[in-house]
UniProtKB/TrEMBL annotation:
<keyword id="KW-0808">Transferase</keyword>
<feature type="domain" description="N-acetyltransferase">
    <location>
        <begin position="3"/>
        <end position="167"/>
    </location>
</feature>
<dbReference type="GO" id="GO:0016747">
    <property type="term" value="F:acyltransferase activity, transferring groups other than amino-acyl groups"/>
</dbReference>
<dbReference type="InterPro" id="IPR016181">
    <property type="entry name" value="Acyl_CoA_acyltransferase"/>
</dbReference>
<protein>
    <submittedName>
        <fullName>GNAT family N-acetyltransferase</fullName>
    </submittedName>
</protein>
<dbReference type="InterPro" id="IPR000182">
    <property type="entry name" value="GNAT_dom"/>
</dbReference>
<dbReference type="Pfam" id="PF00583">
    <property type="entry name" value="Acetyltransf_1"/>
</dbReference>
Length: 167
């Protein structure tokens, strides 16, 4: 497959929003509370793109996945109930989702690899992320891809499991 990993543009918002809407529905079908409170939404995606944090994984010019990627930009991580592995610069990703047409084809793992490449390209050796306690697919990815559980963080009143990978 021919992968392209690039910054998202305003023109990509309808496709990204569809991917996220499908992911929101999957989370609900799985019995999860994650993403069931009006977040994320199209304004979130537009903001990601405006601050140049929105990225897409394309396969043969079709958007297969989306993630927001930031550097040192998650204030809640300062309030971790636990202990991070490192204290220096870090890459954080949010809103990672795969298009339903690409589910089960390794695209989430590919997004993780692209995020690792992004970190290395910016000379950063730490990736931090979090997910809901009941997001079994993401928890499985964290464990399989060498992330370490570091504790809990809180978003919109809910605890999330926080992970870090040192590259």
């Amino acid at each position: 497959m021919n992968y392209t990993f690039r910054k998202a543009t305003i023109q990509d918002i309808p496709q990204i929003w569809q991917i996220l809407q499908d992911a929101i529905a999957r989370r609900k079908d799985d019995g999860s509370n994650q993403w069931q409170d009006g977040y994320p939404n199209p304004e979130t995606i537009e903001n990601d793109i405006t601050i140049e944090a929105g990225y897409i994984l394309e396969i043969d010019s079709q958007i297969a996945g989306y993630a927001a990627i930031l550097i040192n930009d998650e204030p809640e991580y300062d309030n971790l109930k636990g202990k991070w592995l490192t204290t220096g610069d870090f890459v954080v990703f949010h809103r990672l989702a795969v298009a339903k047409e690409f589910l089960g084809k390794g695209m989430a793992s590919e997004l993780f690899l692209q995020i690792e490449k992004f970190a290395k390209d910016h000379n950063i050796n730490s990736i931090k992320a979090d997910t809901n306690f009941d997001n079994l697919a993401m928890l499985h990815l964290f464990e399989n891809l060498g992330y370490h559980f570091c504790g809990e963080v809180y978003f919109r009143g809910s605890a999330r499991k926080a992970y870090e990978k040192v590259l």
